[in-house]
């Protein structure tokens, strides 16, 4: 599970200060799939990065499980993320010199863990990446890169998966595959999934939707499918 | 206008060869807004890059206006693109060391042309970028970066605008702004607009939709809104 308490993130200072987050409090439980929606620039990616320990808030607290992040050293934070967090970045962040297959296995390699061949096969097959594994990101389409980024986050079966607009570059069939994968991660593996999306169809896969605007939570919707 | 005749683009060779384009013929007239849809990996970005002269097809012909691209030197191709083409890239391709404002003006600067202050103000205001102009791409949200990429393509009022999934990272309000801008470029400025999208709502802004699959045109739909 993940918790945020009174998160504030300010860039700059004085009258050019940007309050990317302006007091966000929220809790995300195990086995819960939360979608986060809101206008461009409303703070969604900033919130995700703070929740995953990739960015430090100006003030406020984040907890992953019972571990508060603010007290941790960089090393401890890195180890915590490696063990417990998967992140699908809005801009993919694949390593250009590694193949798709190497990018997908990277978190396991860094954690010194062996891949589970059946799980790896499941992830690669359902995301339709089997014949692209030996290609580097520059040789992949935008949607293929996005699916590689998703596969990389799914491979370690982490406690928490953060997905920042994971279907923005995908056609509806590929998008549905990613979304059903995320939902079964929640239902079957009891993971916590937090997904930013602009797409109401994608939000419909979640158990609830949080609405962000101007760095604050503006509302919540439970069981979003009619 | 833009024309493609029997375009083929092959990557690799032998039995690992990938036919990104497998014989595409299409024409895009002035004052026409065409959407291109199709599954991830079907060749949409490859087609756009070949049509814009950013990539050389394995075989086949591309014409922009009455100028065939295959005979041109690199220098002539660069000048043609600079004068006549705007391109919104699927991965934005903003220069990280320039501010948003500098990125937006870059094509004009390279062409040695002065910005039209009223047009620049119109583009920046309607895309809601006014207070982000002094920030570099790393300080912008994903959607803000995408809007900067759109603004950069619109600034020179080129004959042809290629937009590769220009609303994938935008909420519906920002997306609608970009799409209505593209449509008025067609209606009022008689530009040719070719837009790749996965979003049926975005495709609804176009005059017609071309469907791509496995590197080939699989169908066409005119006046896609019901
Ligand atoms: N340099 C390359 N080497 C090998 N294959 C490539 C290369 N560049 C692209 N491809 C392949 O060509 C095919 C078409 O790619 P393209 O980027 O045109 O797809 P797309 O329709 O734009 O997909 P998306 O909707 O995911 O952006 C894909 O299967 C891709 O992996
Ligand atoms: N390093 C920075 N310096 C200044 N402002 C920043 C910086 N990083 C982000 N911002 C600003 O913080 C605000 C929130 O950004 P964020 O990336 O969280 O938005 P978002 O909700 O993810 O938007 P999108 O839907 O466009 O991806 C934006 O206005 C952005 O420009
Ligand atoms: Mg974002
Ligand atoms: Mg593409």
Structure, described:
By secondary structure, chain A is an alpha/beta fold. The first copy, chain A, has helices at residues 44-51, 74-84, 100-110, 117-126, 142-155, 172-189, 200-203; strands spanning 2-11, 18-28, 33-37, 59-64, 67-68, 85-88, 160-164, 192-196, 208-213, 216-222. A six-stranded mixed beta sheet of chain A has the order 6-7-8-3-9-10, sandwiched between helices. A four-stranded antiparallel beta sheet of chain A has the order 2-1-4-5, covered by helices on one side. In chain A, strand 7, helix 6 and strand 8 (192-196) form a beta-alpha-beta unit. In chain A, helix 3 (100-110) runs parallel beside helix 5. Chain A is globular, with a radius of gyration of 17 Å. The two termini of chain A are 27 Å apart. In chain A, 46% of the residues are buried. The model of chain A has no long low-confidence stretch (mean pLDDT 94). Chains A and B meet through helix 5 and helix 6 of A and helix 5 and helix 6 of B. The complex binds adenosine-5'-triphosphate (ATP) (2 copies) and magnesium ion (MG) (2 copies). One magnesium ion is lined by residues 44-45, 90, 164 of chain B.
Biggest sheet descriptor of chain A: 6 strands, mixed
Mean pLDDT score of chain A: 94
Order of strands across the widest beta sheet of chain A? 6-7-8-3-9-10
How many individual β-strands of chain A?
A: 10
Biggest interface: chains and residue counts?
A-B, 28 and 28 residues
Rounded Rg of chain A? 17 Å
Name the overall outline of chain A.
Answer: globular
Helix content of chain A: 25-40%
Q: Helix tally of chain A? A: 7
């Amino acid at each position: 599970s993940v918790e945020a308490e009174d998160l504030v993130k300010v860039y700059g200072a004085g009258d050019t200060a940007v309050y990317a987050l302006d007091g966000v409090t929220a809790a995300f439980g195990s086995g819960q799939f939360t979608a986060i929606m809101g206008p461009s620039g409303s703070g969604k990616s900033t919130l995700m990065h703070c929740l995953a320990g990739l960015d430090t808030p100006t003030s406020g607290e984040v907890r992953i499980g019972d571990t508060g992040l603010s007290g941790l050293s960089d090393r401890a934070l890195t180890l915590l993320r490696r063990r417990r967090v998967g992140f699908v970045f809005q801009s993919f962040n694949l390593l250009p010199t590694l193949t798709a297959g190497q990018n997908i296995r990277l978190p396991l390699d860094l954690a010194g863990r062996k891949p589970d061949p059946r799980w790896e096969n499941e992830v690669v097959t359902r995301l339709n990446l089997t014949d692209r594994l030996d290609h580097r990101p520059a040789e992949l389409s935008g949607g293929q890169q996005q699916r590689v980024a998703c596969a990389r986050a799914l491979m370690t079966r982490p406690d928490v998966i953060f997905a920042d607009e994971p279907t923005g570059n995908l056609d509806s069939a590929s998008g549905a595959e990613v979304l059903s994968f995320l939902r079964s991660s929640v239902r079957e593996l009891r993971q916590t999934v937090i997904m930013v999306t602009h797409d109401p169809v994608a939000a419909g896969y979640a158990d609830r939707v949080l609405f962000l605007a101007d760095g604050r939570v503006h509302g919540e919707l439970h069981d979003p499918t009619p």
